[in-house]
Amino acid sequence: xxxxxxxxxxxxxxxxxxxxxxxxxxxxxxxxxxxxxxxxxxxxxxxxxxxxxxxxxxxxxxxxxxxxxxxxxxxxxxxxxxxxxxxxxxxxxxxxxxxxxxxxxxxxxxxxxxxxxxxxxxxxxxxxxxxxxxxxxxxxxxxxxxxxxxxxxxxxxxxxxxxxxxxxxxxxxxxxxxxxxxxxxxxxxxxxxxxxxxxxxxxxxxxxxxxxxxxxxxxxxxxxxxxxxxxxxxxxxxxxxxxxxxxxxxxxxxxxxxxxxxxxxxxxxxxxxxxxxxxxxxxxxxxxxxxxxxxxxxxxxxxxxxxxxxxxxxxxxxxxxxxxxxxxxxxxxxxxxxxxxxxxx
Length: 345
What we know:
By secondary structure, the protein is mainly alpha-helical. It is built from 17 helices and no strands. It is globular. The termini are far apart.
């Protein structure tokens, strides 16, 4: 497979008359990455950077830097990964590459999603994600990133509607990596909605895309989401798969989830301030302080003069802004960054 990618990219480079200098190494590196041959992938990405610098192929250079960061994430080295991200962002900003600003923000999104820090995601994702009614076929990565953002922030209705539109647009258009992500996201949404038949259909499409080439990491790289998918698949008793192969994917996904958990904990516990990126409303600040005092949602609602459902909405927004997963995590992050005082009972 790696050889095929390499030969195809070299041919495509000739057709483009050199305008994609370094593209063949980028393609070969991505193929090696998905086969988990990280040493060869790193070699290819560094070669892509060297060639791209010669002719100012900024998009190829930035994608290669991003992929080197992905390799560091694979090994759990979040500091080295963020150093690659800083290099990528500095290159785009210092050279005033306006045409790559959206690419830059999509790559920032990926890094901080892996680190569980949604507060660091560029704010425009919350407001300008394309709706299904007017979806251009270009910028596939931006579209998939936007859909994943909707999924993470709980807007599953718009996430699913946009996915359906993308699936229709991309029929016969290639976009292998984006379509794979699309089918996995569809499987997650159908799983959350307890819809086994459309879940099985979406997962089968993703499975067929990776199984023939034994690209287990294309699935196991999703970590806890893939663990949940495979648990649901087994619970529903859905057949038609290589069970031994899926068991291997499951083990790798569990391992990935554990590595991500350790990396996220290390990232949170370093001396890292979120104050500049977190902006809580007055009501959210009040709710956060009551949470830190150990009050229940009912008690908080009574003190604030609002319903328990309104309290739940404030708490949900606080968790999202802090990148927290539960009350204890939110209080820890807030205390560490001076958003609340340590409470002495």
